[in-house]
Amino acid sequence: MSVALGCLAAVALDMLLGEPRRNHPLVIFGRLADRLEQHFNGPDGRGWRSHGVTAWCMAVLPLTAIAWLLSLLPGVGWWVEVVLLYLALGLRSLGEHLIPVANALRNGDLAAARKRVGFIVSRDTRDLDEQGVARAATESALENGSDAVFAALFWFAVAGAPGVVLYRLSNTLDAMWGYRNARFERFGWAAARIDDLLNYVPARLVALTYALLGRTRDSLRCWRRQAPLWDSPNAGPVMAAGAGALGVTLGGPAIYHGEVHARPSLGIGAVSTPQDIERALDLVWGGVGLWLLALLVGGWVHA
Fold first, then answer.
1. Are strands 254-256 and 259-261 parallel, antiparallel or unpaired?
2. Checking DSSP bridges between strand 265-267 and strand 270-271, what pairing results, if any?
3. pLDDT score at 170
4. Of the four, 28, 120, 176, 241, which is 20 to 30 A from 143 by CA?
């Protein structure tokens, strides 16, 4: 029951306060990761896989151990766990970033919509039309909901404070180092593979959650048929199931770092609209409510 109440308290803090505006611990961690990468990978990206493993261990393991020790403090350990989970969540910020995109599209301000969606996706958004912006934002809601919300809750439920810290830092390093390019192909291999491993189970639970809360039959069909075609083993199930649950078509070609990526189509139905951005957010929020309810019921039964 303490785990369920901890998740509930952390989600409440996130919805009430949002992300820290200044000196967010993940921003500070990002600076540390940059220094480690510059040291172990060098200016020309000549680091080997072993260098990436060493840098990952130095960045993640000491902080995970500190989180574990802090969670053991008598009297305040539970509150430490709640605060660490709160810092790992991004539920409110997901809406804060995506709702303005939907509003800009409704108001016919395509330039503002492109700019705002560019803050949260890695693709080139300068030449996107209205449908492209809506599609990118809807995909971001589904995928970031999995990475920044559900997976954090999962690892907190499994392993408490050290679990959520281990996951969130690993996910951050994947976002910084996990690129398939000349600089990070070797050095970032460990960060990418570890993040894939940590997200494997949560991503499939999220896909099932989306299916249960949406058009279940279409969602499961899209998950089964389309997810294997996606290049990411975890984003594929999440986005395919989410697109099927919403009854929209996502995916398709996109430009990343000046190169066109021929991504397969996901989902079924019409192209994305501004309303689908908000529907995707509703799917994430509804899923969080479902997970919290399941945790509370499970904790009550166990107690």
1. antiparallel
2. unpaired
3. 96
4. 28
